[in-house]
Amino acid sequence: MNPEAATENGDSASLNEILNFKGAAEDNLAESKLFDGIQSKHGLADIPAAKISELMKLNSLESASTHSLFSVVSNILDDSIERKNGDIPQCVASLVKLVVQEIEARVSKQADNLRKQNGLYKSREERYQSRVKALETLALGTTEEHEVIMKKLQQIKIEKAKMEEKEKLQEQDLIRLMEDNDHYKMQISSLDAELESSKHAHEKDRLQLEAQLEQTRVESENKILELQCLLSESTKKVQELEAFSESKLVKLKRRELGYKHFIDSHFGSLQELRMSSESIRKEVMRTKEIYVEELSHFGFNLKGLVDAAQNYHTVLEENRKLYNEVQDLKGNIRVYCRIRPFLPGQSQKLTTIEYIGENGELVVTNPSKLGKDSHRLFKFNKVFAPAVTQEEVFRDTQPLIRSVLDGYNVCIFAYGQTGSGKTYTMSGPSMSSVENWGVNYRALNDLFNISQSRKSSIAYEVGVQMVEIYNEQVRDLLCSDTSQKRYPC
Ligand SMILES: Nc1ncnc2c1ncn2[C@@H]1O[C@H](COP(=O)(O)OP(=O)(O)OP(=O)(O)O)[C@@H](O)[C@H]1O
User: Fold this and answer.
1) GO:BP terms for this protein (predicted)?
2) What residue ranges do the domains of the chain occupy?
């Protein structure tokens, strides 16, 4: 505010008061500046309307507050009423118009803003309504969720218990693992010790082996040297041999020449020989023909022989038949008597045998009786004297035994009192010599010999039984079980 300007012009001072922005609205510094500019030099009545409008524009009327604008209008109007008795100058009217237009523009702008805000509030309200609904549905859902959560909580508790158990087990495992670890550590330490010892041993072995290797190397080197010496020697020998063979080759060539001369000289005699060999060949051919003739003649004779052999078999069969018939005629049952010689130590004794006939008669004396009763005559098929050998006894039974091979049954048995010589006759005193063999061994030997000779045409199976009849009880003498000798075994 310029006090000098107010004193110079009374209109200017009153406009000053009217437009004193500071006094009306202290809150707007921009407006104060505007009206400071306007009031500084002239009063409002003196300023042309175009100038006022320009000044207002320059001082940015748009930036002034609505309240200050109303104050400005009111002050202008009050001032006009006081000074001009209700007449409003043109410049003030245009100014008021401008301010009113600004106020209207602002009011409409504010109305638009309010409408917009109203719309915003409505949309917000709708949004809140929908949120309220969502929260209500959420509130309903929370009870179900609560149950689910409780169940989950329960499960979590169970799982927690399980986890605790697992933890305990893991702790136990850990303890066990630690124990194992200690154990393994001990093992490792023992293994380390073993490893160390084996390492030492291996080291020792290695050193030994190295020493051996060195020794072998030295030996092999020596051997190589020896071999090289031998090689040089053998090369020398080879050279010698080559020289020798060379000289021999020369000799052989000379010999070859000699042989050639010899062959040439003998070629003529060879021709002669060929001629003579031809004549010999012819001779051989002739002999061959004669031989073939004789061979066919021989074949013819052989056929006759085969026929004769076949006839021989039939004759043999007939012979056998006749032979067995003779045996039958001789009697199916034959009784032989063998007189045992005195045993060593019985030479003083007198014999009771008085006569042994050729046809099996035997006269025995009885010194205790007189007359006719003192002699008794026995008749057998044959009587063997005390001096008769085992062979002679067997010879008489041999034909009968051979009948077995033609399918006849034969039984030979020895009968007599104890010590009379049954075993001696049937088996023999010992097996050591063939001469001592008794009837049994000789019979079997004979049968085996015959079956062997006839094996090309007949296969025999030979079976043997040997029994003893004593006190009317039959005992098997071939039974191996001595406790079970009763026949049959
Ligand atoms: N012909 C003989 N020549 C020589 N010694 C014989 C003759 N016969 C039997 N002896 C002898 O007579 C003894 C009795 O013979 P052996 O044992 O054969 O009789 P045994 O009848 O079998 O008797 P046992 O019924 O008790 O068995 C034996 O010492 C035996 O060597």
Assistant:
1) microtubule-based movement
2) 3-127, 331-388, 389-489
Residue 338 CA, closest ligand 1 atom number? 1
pLDDT, tens digit (0-9, with 9 covering 90-100), for 111-128: 888 888 888 888 888 888
Which CATH number is correct for 389-489, 3.40.50.2030, 3.40.50.280, 1.10.530.10, 3.40.850.10?
A: 3.40.850.10
The annotation places the binding site for ATP at 416-423
Rounded to two decimals, the ipTM of the complex is 0.98
Q: Is 436 in the pocket of ligand 1 (CB under 6 A)?
A: no
From 424, 427, 435, 440, the mutation candidate for ligand 1 (largest count of ligand atoms within 8 A of CB) is: 424
Which residue CA neighbors atom 18 of ligand 1 most closely?
A: 421
Q: For residue 390, how far is its CA from the centre of ligand 1 (angstroms)?
A: 13
> What is the pTM assigned to this prediction?
0.42
